[in-house]
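Obj: model holo form, ligand = protoporphyrin IX containing FE.
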Amino acid sequence: MQFPAVDPIPLPAPVWLFKLLHIVTLSLHFVAVEMLLGGLLLAVMLSAMRNSDHAQVLSRALARRLTVVMTYVINLGVPPLLFSQVLYGRTLYTSSVLIGLYWISIIGLLTLAYWLLYQFSARVQAGRSAWWVGLSAWVLAGVIARLLSTNMTLMLRPEVWRQMYSASAAGAYLPTGDPTLTPRWLLMLAGGLLVGGLWIVYLAGRRTFTAAEKQFAARLGGTVAALCGVVYLTAGLWAASVQPAVVKAGLATDPLYHYAGLAGYGWIALVIVAILLGAFAALGKVTAGWLGWAGAAVLLLTEIAFVVYREGVRDLTLLAKGFDVWNRAVVTNWSVVGLFLVLFVASLGVVGWLISVVARAQKPMEGAAQ
Ligand code: HEM
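Output (holo structure tokens):
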């Protein structure tokens, strides 16, 4: 119907392979995004608690790591962007063009947010007032998240494209009236605080903190995770409840997509486990490393379940409007696919090795004078 014609060049690999790679890389992007959105807001709040030494140490520890997290946000955002363009180009390109001015502005906003993040980190390390710099970076990251949610929901609404284009062909017009947009955006923001809280619980297990700092971190991170986990769960249920009836029905009964529906239930169970881990840490009695690692594993699985469910929502919404993502001419070029997979696994190995080198390096105590 309203979709542009399909590209006559066939796909060079099966749809399922693109989907699999998309799910893996997008889940990792979301882990990094949530660490950034939640970790930054918590670091900002801690940095403003100027009369608490423990808060300052923890804020410094988070700020120092956030500039690294940002590199993962960006680098893990590129692969899913490529995979979604291959699979959904006809709809994703259209929505990107329709909000073109805002879409392209993400590059500028991101550069500014990154610069502010470095300023925030430097000021926190130097013991200077920094909350307003960090908060500005966080607001920009929140705006970027909003623009991404706007595009990812606009790509599902071909029925409004023509009227939007008539209103502004300059890409200067943001869509309105989509009931799924705000819950979806808030879901990502709330998830950030759950992840940020459990990240602090993980830090509480590190040997570079004193016993008193560990206790402070476990209590604070656990409390944030437990409380914000409930908000995250509520936002998720809200986002699911506003989906069209045909999508809900597909998630329950479609032979393929009912697995995505099951992933939704898996997501609920995992978030509840994450909340319980947070509540346990909030008691402040345990600061052991296993608690942090358990939190990290649960969060990774949570993001995977979320992405699978989200794929179901997208594909079923588009299917109801005449776009079948599986219906593509495929001429697989196995030698290229093989080479890609070898390089993909090798690069994951290199990143793993990099992380292990950093983990094994001698580290000063976090509270030591800078
Ligand atoms: C501060 C930086 C960033 C933030 C806060 C952020 C946040 C988000 C959020 C909230 C979503 C989910 C939107 C939704 O579905 O409702 C998302 C999706 C996505 N992001 Fe990021 N992002 C950032 C940077 C990037 C960058 C630099 C790239 C690419 C170079 C990128 C690529 C993507 C892609 C491709 C998706 C959606 C993929 C899909 O649904 O197929 N992001 N991001």
